[in-house]
Amino acid sequence: MLLSLRGVCKRFGGFTALRDVTGEVGGRAVGLLGPNGAGKTTLMKICLGLLAADEGEVRVLGIDVRREPGRARARLGYAAEGPGRIPGLTGLESVAYAAELCGLPRRDAYLRAHEVLDLVGLDEARQRGVEHYSTGMHQRVKLAMALVHDPELVLLDEPTSGLDPSSRDDLLELLEHLRDGDGPAFLLSTHLLHDVERTCDTCLIMDKGQLHFAGSLESLRRGAAEEFEVRALKTAAGRDRLAALRVGLERAGAGISTGRRPETLIVALAPAKIWEVSRALEIPITHLKPRALSLEEVFLRTIKRLDGDMSNEAGGAP
Fold first, then answer.
1. Number of H helices, E strands in the chain
2. 22 within 8 A of 211, measured Cβ to Cβ
3. What is the rounded CA–CA span in Å between residue 127 and residue 125?
4. For the chain, where are the E strands, in sequence order?
């Protein structure tokens, strides 16, 4: 397992940032998903040993972070959210400085810095002062600083935040290269679901300080209700019957048509039930196929369902 969590809690005064976080995940590329304020950054800092959990156990690469934080950090890289630059240094000097902090002699640190700057695609700009860098160049330098000591796992906190579409695409392509090559595994913390869908094979889903899912993207999608795309001819009479059937049917696109023309419906019913409804409402089906849910749809439904479960529990409490 890359990451194993057991009953992790973290409080800041009266505010609970993490509440009984339990789960484990492996793979080469892990997405840490959740809206802003979900507790993602707090969890990452606990994994690095920069914050201590109030309760629970955190193991990263099999290492108990509470007992051996230094050993864990030696095998981890970290790119924090925000610029994170050191004014007065060039990109090359920044990465070499990070290498020296990790124990490399100065000459070896500069040689290694050149290697990782080539990897992240920062060419002649490496000799320029970092205060003159664009946001995309800052993200590349931060990634190079996280990779310079050859870690086994890199933690990336919102690496595509603030990037223009072209720079974001370039960075995601770089992450795909790391995932598919011989480089380290990475944990990508983001609220952008497309980034996880493109680069990751497993994910953690957090909301309001709780971990709601840990596993592969495939298993996450399998856990969602199966849906079908249905196209049916509707008569005016059938329209009224269809409108009365609220459970399991959701129109896609425009409103209900009044003529005899196909309308696409998203149906969360078993195929046998779909045909049963079709016969009962006298609406001929012209098209039926399974519908693949996007990660965004699955994520939003997971959060919505769990929020509803929590509200029901709170409402039923004595």
1. 11, 14
2. yes
3. 5
4. 3-12, 15-25, 29-33, 55-60, 63-64, 76-79, 153-157, 185-190, 202-207, 210-216, 227-233, 249-251, 262-267, 285-291
pTM of the model: 0.75
**Which residues are 214's β-sheet partners?**
204
Cα(202)–Cα(221) distance, integer angstroms: 11
CB 222 within 8 A of CB 211: no
N-term to C-term CA, the chain: 40
| Tokens read off for 62 | 């099999």
Provide the sign of the torsion angle of the four alpha carbons 139, 145, 148, 154, taken in this order: negative
The two three-digit tokens of residue 77, written as one number: 């890289």
Q: What is the DSSP string of 95-137?
A: HHHHHHHTT--HHHHHHHHHHHHHHTT--GGGGSBGGG--HHH
Q: Look up tokens 């769990």; give the residue.
A: 306
**249-275 tens-digit pLDDT:** 444 433 333 344 555 666 666 677 777
Burial class from Cβ neighbours inside 10 Å (0-12, 13-18, 19+) for residue 224 reads middle
Q: What is the pLDDT of residue 84?
A: 72
Q: What is the rounded CA–CA span in Å between residue 51 and residue 250?
A: 46
What's the one-letter identity of residue 297?
E
Q: Provide the 10 A C-beta neighbour count for residue 174.
A: 19
pLDDT tens digit sequence for 282-302: 777 777 776 666 677 677 666
Report the C-alpha gap between 189 and 184 in whole angstroms. 16
Rounded to whole angstroms, how far apart are CA atoms 121 and 170?
9
Q: Taking the CA atoms of the chain, what radius of gyration do you get in angstroms?
A: 25
52 contact partners, CB below 8 Å, separation of at least 6: 46, 66
Orientation angle between helical segments 91-101 and 106-119, nearest 10 degrees: 120
Distance CA 205, CA 43 (A): 12
